[in-house]
Design a protein that fits this description.
alpha/beta; Rossmann fold; globular; 2 domains; 14 helices; three-stranded parallel sheet
Length: 346
């Protein structure tokens, strides 16, 4: 006899994540666990996509041919960029390519988001983070963004030390490296750090439309309020059912570095009463949660406003616009997957 488990609530979870788990989990998330360069499908109308694949394959080949000699002469690194920076809009496959590079390269190596990297420094401290990563061959950083002056100085110093130790770098972002921080803080006051970061990378531009919506039907409309709970009850074990306002309040009590752990064992997400988010701090926490949900390929079923109305016009007009658009794109994709979880009308 199969016993169904009732949905859980994410608001009851306050995970504790040890520092060693943060390091161990710096690998491609499940969604990108099997991607490779040959599974990336370039848009024939965007030649920069195919060119990026060729350049990254060559970069991986250089890493594989680097040999052990590099370990003995780290300070003899040639001047110039020590990494690749993939710049482009959301949904053009940058994370796919970054994960493919990770899979094609020798270890030791790590892949994490920018937020996860700064969280690692917060958990280990700067010195231990440098020690933990300086023996790597490759560090891949997804969603590279400078949100405040503290991040700018921290990351500039950290990546400088890692590059000097011979660690090769690869990053993705929606912003060119010399434009990081624009619209978010007085970036001109930290131009030396920003330019120093920019000099670490060879930038590759990847244009194109969001593949998550390429040739696909429009995003499903929100479901009726009573259908969310019904869908959660009918879902496989591991469903998480929450009232959206309560979940937003709960996110403020959990460090973003623990959002992934908060989703441990979850197989589907169900939200009642989605409403527009007006506060920037709340919105940025929701972006992180959406990213961790997307990494884990979690379907979403929700009532309330559609996801393209999730963030106010004021937020979308600010410095974090690209973050919010990426979150909308990913939530829409997950909502398409979630549409299959909604029971058919009787």
């Amino acid at each position: 006899m199969i016993v169904s488990v009732a949905p859980v609530s994410l608001t009851t979870r306050h995970p504790s994540v040890p520092a060693d788990r943060l390091v161990a989990e710096m690998v491609p998330p499940p969604r990108f666990g099997d991607v490779r360069f040959d599974t990336y499908i370039p848009d024939p109308n965007q030649p920069g996509q195919a060119a990026a694949v060729v350049r990254l394959e060559r970069f991986a080949a250089e890493l594989n041919g680097d040999g052990t000699k590099r370990r003995w002469f780290r300070r003899e690194q040639a001047a110039g960029p020590s990494g690749i920076y993939l710049d482009g809009g959301y949904g053009v496959g940058k994370t796919h390519l970054l994960a493919s590079l990770w899979h094609a390269s020798p270890g030791p190596k790590s892949l994490c988001t920018f937020v996860e990297l700064t969280n690692l420094v917060g958990a280990l401290g700067f010195r231990r983070t440098v020690e933990a990563l300086s023996g790597h061959r490759l560090l891949c950083i997804d969603e590279f963004e400078l949100d405040d002056p503290g991040d700018t100085v921290l990351v500039s110093t950290l990546l400088g030390k890692l590059a000097d130790a011979g660690v090769k770098l690869a990053a993705t972002s929606n912003t060119l490296p010399d434009k990081l921080g624009e619209g978010r803080f007085a970036a001109q006051d930290f131009m030396r750090e920003i330019q120093g970061l920019s000099s670490r990378f060879e930038a590759l531009r990847i244009d194109g439309e969001d593949y998550r919506h390429r040739g696909l039907p429009a995003a499903p409309a929100p479901v009726a309020e009573d259908m969310v709970a019904a869908a959660a009850e009918a879902a496989p074990d591991g469903a998480a059912l929450d009232d959206f306002p309560a979940l937003l309040a709960h996110l403020a009590t959990v460090h973003p570095s623990r959002y992934g752990a908060m989703l441990d064992g979850i197989t589907g997400v169900f939200w009642r009463g989605v409403r527009p988010v007006e506060d920037q701090g709340t919105a940025l926490r929701l972006v992180v949660l959406a990213d961790r949900m997307y990494d884990r390929e979690l379907p979403v079923v929700a009532s309330g406003v559609p996801f393209d109305e999730l963030f106010t016009e004021e937020l979308l007009g600010g410095g974090y616009r690209k973050k919010y658009l990426r979150a909308i794109s990913r939530l829409v994709s997950m909502a398409r997957d979630g549409a299959e979880r909604v029971p058919a009308p009787r």
